[in-house]
Amino acid sequence: SAVISQKPSRDICQRGTSLTIQCQVDSQVTMMFWYRQQPGQSLTLIATANQGSEATYESGFVIDKFPISRPNLTFSTLTVSNMSPEDSSIYLCSAWTSGRNIQYFGAGTRLSVL
Amino acid sequence: SQKIEQNSEALNIQEGKTATLTCNYTNYSPAYLQWYRQDPGRGPVFLLLIRENEKEKRKERLKVTFDTTLKQSLFHITASQPADSATYLCALNSNSGYALNFGKGTSLLVTP
Fold first, then answer.
1. Is the terminal CB of chain B with fewer CB neighbours within 10 Å at N or C?
2. Which residues of chain B make contact with A106, given a CB cutoff of 8 A?
């Protein structure tokens, strides 16, 4: 299994600012993903973080708003840019390793935008 | 469009009974289906995976069935315990193949 650490666990931010969320995995993984979970809603995939190349974004999510980095096989960041109250949500990082078809999740980052 | 539907109403059952949760999907041809558990303030935790050619899978007190004709999976917890109280999520692989699409989840409350 993989253990995923996310930082920060929660934050309260002002409108118009940006927040970078870090995701660290305790072992090398094939793929990393970023999800958003709004209150009472399902997890929605934001993007796949690709190692050494640009992330692959899902419909409705763009790089300018959610820039993602993945410099190596164990680490990724998600930035929520120019935040508005609509960005208030839980952001979750997950990791997938080939051969197991299981995703491991971090505890999430609870973001509130005022 | 693709949809994954889980019973949005919370399921309340008495300790010792069997809990049965339902997952229905449309416009998917999944290679496998997964169930996760999510506790408040935590990320989802993997429970079981069932492949399209499998009808049933068991793990301890958990049982999952998968009917690709009905496009439905049932998730059973036998001899339920208060510690089983959580939200249970059904997930299917996305079009990209590796990421997951999740249902909204069903909240289970097991009372003593």
1. N
2. 43
Question: CA A45, CA B76: separation in Å to the nearest integer?
Answer: 27
Q: What is the pLDDT of residues A27-59, one digit of tens each?
A: 999 889 999 999 888 899 999 998 888 899 999
What is the mean predicted confidence (pLDDT) over B19-48?
93
- Residue A63 region, left (φ>0) first, then alpha (ψ -120 to 50), else beta? alpha
- Residue A60: partners with Cβ closer than 8 Å, 6 or more residues away: none
Chain A nearest-CA distance from B21, in A, is: 16
CA distances from A15 to A7, B20, B72, B94, B111 (A): 20, 43, 42, 32, 42
Q: Supply B109's token pair.
A: 């409350």
Taking contacts as CB-CB distances below 8 angstroms, the residues of chain B near A7 are: none
CB distance A31–B98 less than 8 Å? yes
Q: Where residue B29 falls among pLDDT bands split at 50, 70, 90?
A: confident
Give per-10-residue mean pLDDT for chain A (114 aa): 93 97 94 92 92 90 96 96 96 88 92 96
**A100 Cβ contact list (under 8 Å, min separation 6):** none
